[in-house]
Specification:
The chain has 455 residues and is α+β, with helices and mostly antiparallel strands. It contains 13 helices and 12 strands. It has 2 domains: 3-180 and 298-434, Zn peptidases (Aminopeptidase, 3-Layer(aba) Sandwich), CATH 3.40.630.10; 182-295, Alpha-Beta Plaits (2-Layer Sandwich), CATH 3.30.70. The strands form 2 sheets. A 7-stranded mixed sheet has the order 1-2-4-3-5-12-6, sandwiched between helices. Strands 7, 8, 9, 10 and 11 form a 5-stranded antiparallel sheet that branches. The longest helix has 23 residues, at 397-419. It is globular and about 80 Å long. The protein binds zinc ion (ZN).
Length: 455
């Protein structure tokens, strides 16, 4: 095994993936609509000699690209979706949409998908040149931003024969990050009876009252839940803007999070009881629940985390030119660390057990195969995801550099797993130990046609 040979093969094709990522940045397609982005990538991988399967799990913008045969089966995951309203002119250090209200890549998924394909293509060339045995797969996963593409893929069994997988996310830091709370996003609609609120209120039954009682009941529940849980909500239908009409319909959107999927489902069942109680008290009908999405908790795999961290550290720090540092300096004031001494974070955070604060659909994959992911700096220090400054930096040489580094980390880690049986056995042992007594289950109705969620 020669990582140097792998990296030099990858270096030859760097420009291809910079072009691919920049093109995907320009397409800026939303969840489940990544048609142009995935067509470009599919065709590239087909030309590279991968076998393509598409659609997958009834998703047109999902595809699997496969090379080789037999055991082990190792995979790389990618995403391509943009965000609504996040359009921004490239490289401009002030908020200036290219087109007001248009979509933009404010989470760096243009780099994410293209970098993962860079890893897959580089590793394939190495495997061919050196006769490495096994099956290499790339999964194009749609709709990470709220659509839960990987949940549909996991539930369809698409990862069932995968021994281990890797993934990455563009960031303002360098670390292994496998934290994720279990989460369900759900709409709770109520139906009452409209009436004139002054002339005949006794004939009305207020759906808004039911929503208020649901929210109040939830406040009382908070005392009696594990502190790692999070319950937050928005009233998404107040029943109309007229105070003199008893609201006939009203709705709240709830997001319920917990450290494990099992406990999240328990909380969800308790809140459903509050919904029923609220309907009973107000003589309205509870017309839900309508689940938008549901993600599992992230199951960590220590052996995979160590492997990725080792590969990341070996490639750090990235060398930045004075021009790149000056470029990043312009964006620093708009991030979460405006006074930081450095313009770009070139350190590696070695903590592989960060506290989970958000949720991700990669976590569902962690329930069906061993997976770990890295975050690699592609922006100025402190640049937050889902903001204009993130979109602005998505085609920069810093972004490209981070993408190439992430691709090498993933390709290098998988090469070790392809060539070191004992290491892969350890990864599988960790997977089995972490899942003892657990069975993958999702609240998401994965038998429905995947589509853009109604928020
Ligand atoms: Zn993202």
């Amino acid at each position: 095994m020669s990582k140097e040979q792998l990296y030099s093969l990858m270096k030859e094709r760097e420009k291809d993936f910079e072009g691919m990522s920049d093109a995907v940045w320009g397409f800026a397609e939303l969840c489940f609509n990544e048609y142009k982005s995935t067509a470009l990538q599919r065709e590239y991988m087909e030309r590279e000699g991968f076998r393509i399967t598409t659609p997958v799990a009834r998703m047109d913008t999902a595809f699997i690209a496969e090379y080789g045969s037999g055991s082990p089966v190792l995979a790389i995951l990618g995403e391509n979706d943009a965000l609504a309203g996040q359009s921004q002119a490239a490289d401009v250090p002030e908020e200036r949409p290219e087109a007001p209200g248009a979509n933009g890549h404010a989470c760096g998924h243009n780099l994410l998908g293209s970098g993962s394909i860079e890893a897959a293509c580089g590793l394939k060339r190495y495997m061919e040149a050196n006769g490495v045995k096994g099956t290499l797969r790339y999964y194009a996963c749609p709709a990470e931003e709220g659509g839960g593409g990987k949940v549909y893929l996991a539930a369809s069994g698409a990862f069932d024969d995968v021994d281990a997988a890797v993934c990455w996310h563009p960031a303002a830091e360098n670390c292994v990050d496998n934290a994720g709370l279990a989460c369900v996003t759900v709409r709770f609609p109520f139906e009452g009876r409209a009436a004139h609120a002054a002339a005949e209120p006794w004939n009305g039954r207020s759906a808004l009252d039911a929503v208020e009682l649901l929210c109040t009941g939830t406040q009382y529940l908070r005392e009696h839940v594990l502190p790692s849980s999070r319950i937050h909500y928005a009233i998404t239908d107040t029943g109309g803007g007229m105070g003199n009409v008893v609201p006939q319909h009203a709705e709240a959107q709830f997001i319920i999070r917990a450290a494990t999927s099992e406990y999240m489902e328990e909380l969800y069942a308790r809140i459903l009881k509050i919904c029923e109680g609220a309907a009973l008290m107000t003589e309205t009908s509870f017309r839900g629940p309508n689940i938008i999405s549901s993600y599992s908790d992230f199951v960590r795999n220590d052996a995979m985390d160590k492997l990725l961290l080792k590969n990341l550290k070996a490639l750090m720090p990235m060398d930045y030119t004075p021009e790149e540092l000056a470029y990043a300096e312009q964006f620093k004031p708009f991030g979460s660390m405006p006074g930081a001494a450095e313009a770009i974070d070139s350190s590696v955070d070695e903590n592989t057990r960060r506290e989970a604060t958000g949720s991700t659909d990669v976590a569902d994959v962690s329930h069906v195969t061993a997976i770990s992911q890295v975050r690699v700096a592609t922006t100025a220090i402190g640049t937050v995801a889902h903001g204009w400054a993130n979109t602005a930096q998505g085609k920069s040489s810093i972004a490209h550099k981070g993408m190439h580094t992430a691709a090498r980390v993933m390709a290098g880690a998988l090469l070790e797993l392809f060539t070191d049986e004992a290491l892969l056995a350890k990864v599988r042992e960790d997977f089995d130990a972490a899942h003892a007594g657990r069975k993958y289950h999702t609240l998401m109705p994965t038998d429905r046609q995947p589509s853009m969620p109604k928020l």
